[in-house]
Specification:
This protein is α/β, with parallel strands linked by helices. It is built from 25 helices and 34 strands. The strands form eleven sheets. Strands 11, 12, 13, 14, 15, 16 and 19 form a seven-stranded mixed β-sheet that branches. The chain has a four-stranded antiparallel β-sheet with strand order 7-6-10-20. A hairpin with a 4-residue loop joins strand 6 and strand 7. It is globular. It starts with a helix and ends with a strand. It binds one RNA strand through helix 7, strand 12, strand 16, helix 11 and strand 28.
Length: 798
Amino acid sequence: MLYSFGEIEGKWQKRWYASDLFKAKDDTSLPKYYPLIEFPYPSGSGLHVGHPRAYIALDIIARKRRMQGFNVLYCIGWDAFGLPAENYAMKNKVHPRVVSQNNIKRFKSQIQRLGISFDWSREINTTDEKYYKWTQWIFLQLFKKGLAYKAETIVNWCTGCNVVLANEEVVDGKCERCSSEVIKKQKNQWILKITGYAQRLIDDLDEVDFPSKVKSSQINWIGRSEGVNIQFKITTGDTLEVFTTRPDTIYGVSCMVISPEHRFVSQWLDLAANPAAMRNYVEAAAKKSEIERTSLDKEKTGVQIEGIFAINPVNQAQIPIFISDYVLTSFGTGAIMAVPAHDPRDSEFAKKYSLPIIEVIKEAGPSSSACESEKLINSGMLDGLSIKEAQKKITDWLEETNFGYKKVNFKLRDWVFSRQRYWGEPIPIIHCEKCGYVPLDESELPLELPEIESFEQMEAGISPLENLTDWVNVKCPKCGAAAKRETDTMPQWAGSSWYFLRYCDPQNDQELASQKALDYWMPVDWYNGGMEHTTLHLLYSRFWYKFLFDIGVVQTKEPYAKRTSHGMILGENNEKMSKSRGNVVNPDDVLDKHGADTMRLYEMFIGDFESAASWNTDSIKGCARFLERVWGLLKLPTSDADDFSDGLKLSFNKTIKKVSGEVEDLKFNTAIAALMSLLNEIYVASKINRFELKTFLLLLCPFAPHISEELWERCGLKGLACTSSWPEYNDADCLDSSTEIAIQINGRIKARIVIRTDEIKEEVLKLAKSEPSIREILGNSKIKKEVYVPRSLVNFVV
RNA sequence: GCGGAUGUGGCGGAAUGGCAGACGCGCCAGACUUAGGAUCUGGUAUUUAACGAUGUGGGGGUUCAAAUCCCUUCAUCCGCACCA
């Protein structure tokens, strides 16, 4: 008897989605649980077998929580703005809305075939104006608080997408999405002041349960460094400020280096002896790409600003000044004091330009361990001090003499937020010559994305919206004069920065969600998503959430109490699945051939949830066979009972305990293994009572809900499996009355005996010694030590 | 360079100081079969005729006891990277 999964799965899915079974209730008196998966971008290629890994995992949690009596909010939506749909639209002359609607339809049917228990009544879509009304509203609040500003800065420019990119979107000097080369460009852009939250984004990580890798990546990305800003007087009368974490090395300074974009470069052109050389160098640096400029193996280049010098405040030494692109404009003050003796980069530079190398720290001998033994030398007032002491003394001195002050710097840059594209949320700002940037009145939200003929940029880097003169030309809301709308749109990360708040109250047209709903549901209890979002979506959404906390919209500091990450599913050849590699597995094929329950089990059984795993078509069979054998339970002789039989009581208790615990630790693979073992034992017993059958189906239900529900019904059990209570176990019943232990001599196993589980130590040792083979080996050698690990082993040391 | 991992049978992987290889795939043998890419039963780390010995990347250490803890080394992967 083969079970026909096709019919069964279709039948239950229809019933589930037609009912309120998985709908979250607005009853705030119930204990709540909010699991969250990253909502997908509905791409044209349909669902990938990687998507369901996360959906199934949290579906298991969601289903188990419902069985445990929680009010569960488990939702999905569509992150549907973005470039792929727009590019497809340009090529095929279809509106991106139509493109993404079709993709969503396909994604939805594929996901529903998996029997995931999403609350579809709360489905959201970032491109829906009722949704992006609130994305725009949040932007306006940021603007009003001065956290959204427009500024002419040097930005990352993707030469492929013709669009600016946030720092987080540049990977190895290339565009995160299309891998085209990224260059630096001076541009006027909307920017969000995420740097204002840098310290809190680090500090509040202490409050959340995230993988240490995620925490350290974010901390590393934010890149806090503590140091001192030091002011050097310049022979021109200017003051050059540098940032350093090593003020103690100030006597070792042999030159100053400023970045090619430093404001003093142009200021000093007329004063320097070599303006032509300076100009050449700066122009050459500007032409370099991001990769060229940051490449580490490249030789350092630079040019001296002749005739202008800096004065070292501690010893009045006259120091030459250089321009070099190894100094970054965007970090610190864009200028450094170079200490070649104690910084490898400065050392490389000094060697090339034959600058003095002044050692100011006596290197510790090879025998001494820490820098504790290192002492300052050649350093005037700092001589003989340790590095720590010297840092304190020089910092105090600099502050007293007004030559410097303590400073904390971050690597994190502000978030460049505008994109020169059509398919995104319009930025609700009007530019008036007289009044500057004027926000749209909130009553006019949503500012709808207008219909448009062509999605092509008329000119590289200019939004297609620029062509819609009727839409662009408006009256200034403040003074009534002629003004223009902002034509750039928001980046894809905007809509995804707050979507989990909307699930709490998705139909609300008065607020982004009601206070009551937010207070009840937030924070998200368990958020699972990809590592690739660690310094993008995960960081951005924490920033927005903190801002919403500050303006009183939400009541907790952090949006996600717990974060986990699933590993990627690779192709059979161990490589990332991609069309070009020809190793893509289509979930539809798997579903057609094996059904949803088998696919669900297989994706959870494939290996450690947090590690990458390669797809293996042969291994799916194991899960399919398991379900066939589950189906075969119908054939076993069944007796009425309201408790476990003596023969299976132990196994059932142990399995309930194991499955209950392991699911919480993301150990789905071993939880399923435990269910397989239990089934094997049931077959060895070759009978099952109704209570056992019921318990087995309840344990299986979150993993393979369709077959569990079908068998539940066929066995005449009451109600539905998925609305019944999660089974309980008794700790005392997880121990057998007798157990086999190993007997070791000097750590090597020599025999095994069966003892009563509650046997006292002395008796066990006596039994072990009297075991014939042990008695023989021991002979009359003297036992030095006897170790007994309860219910496990005995070790005699002779 | 900095940070984070990982390394166990033919394969995916179990075991967080206490009997290495659970569970599954594959493979081998048998049963049932006209048939088997179905199902069932048994077996399956290496070495040895056997008793036994060896075995968790390599080396060292702690311990009665180490895949697990410490030191060292090699290899692979991931993130960040001229951040002063």
